[in-house]
Amino acid sequence: xxxxxxxxxxxxxxxxxxxxxxxxxxxxxxxxxxxxxxxxxxxxxxxxxxxxxxxxxxxxxxxxxxxxxxxxxxxxxxxxxxxxxxxxxxxxxxxxxxxxxxxxxxxxxxxxxxxxxxxxxxxxxxxxxxxxxxxxxxxxxxxxxxxxxxxxxxxxxxxxxxxxxxxxxxxxxxxxxxxxxxxxxxxxxxxxxxxxxxxxxxxxxxxxxxxxxxxxxxxxxxxxxxxxxxxxxxxxxxxxx
Length: 241
Known about the structure:
Blueprint: E1 5-8, E2 15-18, E3 22-24, E4 30-32, E5 42-43, E6 53-57, E7 64-68, E8 71-73, E9 79-81, H1 123-136, E10 143-144, E11 155-157, E12 160-165, H2 173-186, E13 189-194, H3 200-209, E14 213-216, E15 222-224, H4 227-235
Parallel strand pairs: 12-13, 13-14
Antiparallel strand pairs: 1-2, 3-4, 5-9, 6-7, 8-9, 10-11, 11-12, 14-15
Helix pairs in contact: 2-3
Organism: Streptomyces ramulosus
Protein name: Restriction endonuclease type IV Mrr domain-containing protein
């Protein structure tokens, strides 16, 4: 898990805690955007496609990719972009890379293809994005339930059940315990995806139960919230399930 850093709002001067986002590299390793400590955040007045991405290199495989630029919102309504550490020059043995999806040479290893996010515009898009992500992790037969069951399960597959909270409120403790019980019933990994994050007691309970938690931004790229989520990204679907 990435450590939070203080970010001072340029408008009201309030200091807010910001946790750098973590994304799944194509090699399977969690990749945390390296926020520049002491950097000056810049208020976002006009958004551009180019300005919404930053280049980050994976410390594990050396791959360079563009990821969503880190942003932070203040209670005063100001949204700022957080500066990141510039990508250092590639080592001599690595192939140069200057565009998204191009990777330098890396030691032999099992690599996943790059995850292709689903832009989130509706609640249904949230479920679709979560399903695509679980398939990317190796749960290839994940499917959407015909309609959300009374138990709250949105996605099922061999060895996995998942619930998706597309609301703008923090996911509550009861929903975490609900998906955990479904996982027990199906002898499957229980996973949770939330658009607005998790209440403190829900997060603590998930840690106790070792339930992978992810938050989703509007680009449709889930980000791990706890150690169980990081572990799931590293290991993916278990063989045979």
